[in-house]
Design goal:
Layout: H1 5-10, E1 12-16, H2 30-33, H3 38-46, H4 55-64, E2 69-75, H5 101-111, E3 115-121, H6 145-166, E4 170-174, H7 187-197, E5 202-203, E6 214-217, E7 229-234, H8 251-263, E8 267-272, H9 282-298, E9 303-304, H10 311-318, E10 320-325, E11 328-333, E12 340-343, E13 350-355, E14 360-362, E15 364-366, E16 372-375, E17 387-393
Parallel strand pairs: 1-2, 1-8, 2-3, 3-4, 4-5, 6-7, 7-8
Antiparallel strand pairs: 9-10, 10-11, 11-17, 12-16, 13-14, 13-17, 15-16
Helix pairs in contact: 4-5, 4-9, 6-7
Length: about 400
Amino acid sequence: MTQTDWFREAHLGMMAHWGVYSRLGRGEWVLNRERIPLAEYRELARFWKADGLDAEAWAQMTEEAGARYFIFTAKHHDGFALWDTQSTEFSAPKSGLKRDIVGELTEAFHARGLKIGFFFSLADWMHPAYPTPYATDWPDLWRRDADRQELVDYSKAQIQELMQGYRPDIMWFDGAAPSPDAVSWESEEIIRICKEANPEVLLNNRLFVPGDFDALEVHLDYPKDGRAWESDYHLNQSWAWNPQDQDYKTPYSLWKRLCYVNAAGGNLLLNFSPDGQGRVPEKEQELLASLGRRIRRLDYHARPGAFGMPAESLGWLQAMDHTVKGNSVYLHAWGRRGDVLNYGSLRSRVRKVLLEDDGRELSFEQEASGRIRIQGLSATELDEMGYCIRLDLEEAPQGFGVGNQDLNF
């Protein structure tokens, strides 16, 4: 057993961006993008109530979506701390919220056996030592090194509070700017603080050291060396609540993304964006519920499998992705042409073929060339996420590999 085993088996995680910016509904960078005066922004928190935020409801929605862990923005770049901190007055318990949001969420998620992690921004636009909150994208330089040291010490004190007070399963760092290097941010000391409080905690790779896993932002340029990784993905085009953004993904596209990421050995981290009252938009709830139904329908907890061929090649060539569980291969397909599926990526002998969606056994023939012809598909109604075929094999799955020269038959 290794420290990242549970993470590698998780397949799906959830993330939520929620903070003072959610009151405005124009994204988590609104303070910066609109050059809102800091005093005006602080005032937004003063009389803020969020009676719609129900930690238990968030945890239930996450569990029913099929996710195994949850990342919450304990502190974003705006510096608002959503836990009971002694480091600043700009925090949830000392605002109109009068609540320890991090504490409530930690209790609710751990009660369901789910892991929880904290998004923590090292950059802090509200702190007087930070160069400026208004740089486009990030400030280039510190005003003086004493300011850098002051903010680093402030960050370490807050990280220690989170680690000792809430024992998260993941610390998800972001925003280490300016000075994008491990020495300036004293990354090794931050790691020591985290690991001493909880040796099992996982750290992402955004401290300019490898950490325990790679956190990819939307893109899929994943590590090819076997490292644990995840790719985050928003349900529309926004990370934080933006009611003007109705460009939501379809259930089909979310399912396809999940299968692709899992086939390549990673986790999909789906972001939902509660409104200023803490309520999750109905459209987002519907998308996550649809994904959860599909996962439960297939008892979907499969390992990655690409049979010696890059996962992206298999998905692109045959409009399907592949996962593996024991000696079974699962084909997650997005379309159907008639009654027959022709499949040619698997060398291993097939013992039985099942349509996972309804449990029917399908007839098939495996030709000498390696082509597998699966019949009986037209009798099944396609749902919004395609269909899944399970191939039970006589041995562990083996493919033909890349560049295989045994082409004549």
